[in-house]
Amino acid sequence: MKNFHSLLGKLALIATVTLGSSQVLAQMSPANVTIRSISYAGSGCPAGSVSQNLAPDFKAFTLLFDSFIASVGPAEPISQKRKNCQINVDFSFPQGWTYALVSFDYRGFVDVERDVIGLQQTSYYFQGAPQTARFKTSMPGPVSRDYQVRDALDLTATVWSPCGESRSLNINSEVRLDNTRNRNGRGLITVDSVDGNIAHTYGIAWKRCW
Predict the structure, then answer these.
(1) pTM value > 0.90
(2) CA distances (Å), origin 99, targets 168, 197, 204
(3) What is the C-alpha separation between 206 and 158, in angstroms, rounded?
(4) Is residue 29 part of a domain?
(5) 3: in domain
(6) How far apart are CA 91 and CA 19, in angstroms?
């Protein structure tokens, strides 16, 4: 088990959102897409803990977190078992288009003992809309390794932005540890021990409104 206290000063999480992630989707992407604003809040991203970098063409952005880690153990406060970050992205794009989040790529490091489960999950919805789409990956212990996962939604199961309306995209990302079956079990989900980064890539699909 790695001593995560020695890693706290090195923590970073990079989330990269890319519009039109595949060649097929890129052919369906509108021109002149921009990001009006990005805001965030949550236990995994307290005020002042996130820096952002927008691509020159405004079609991608990177968020760098320094507090996004979950840990569990006999000496750990219960509040450390779960960390989340609620991200709000406001896009500007031409009339006659709608978009959806269709894929989620992430990598990092998980270290959990037997009967402890590491969980990474992300959900998204559009402001004022009732439908929510979810990505979820469980990593049961014992395991200690770097991980890389790609989640993808079938296009028929995605949640699309309302046509003819400008709605912000809300992304709620969470890391959590479940030690229900081993109350004294230890675990953490943290950054890659080699390069200090967890990379999150969100794929966006576009289609025309008819």
Answers:
(1) no
(2) 11, 28, 7
(3) 11
(4) yes
(5) no
(6) 11
Residue 36, CB-side half-sphere exposure with 13 Å CA sphere: 10
Which CATH number fits the domain that encloses residue 88? 2.60.120
2 falls within a domain:
no
Residues 6+ positions from 73 with CB-CB distance below 8 Å: 184, 185, 186, 187
For residue 30, is it within any domain? yes
Residue 116's domain comprises 12-208
Full DSSP string of 145-166: EEEEEEEE--GGG--PPPTTS-
Please count the other Cβ atoms lying within 10 Å of the Cβ belonging to residue 83.
Answer: 22
- Give the CA dihedral 139, 143, 148, 151, nearest 10 degrees: -10
In the chain, the number of structural domains is 1
> pLDDT tens digit string along 156-207?
557 788 887 777 888 888 889 999 999 999 999 863 322 223 345 566 778 8
Are the beta carbons of 108 and 191 closer than 8 angstroms? yes
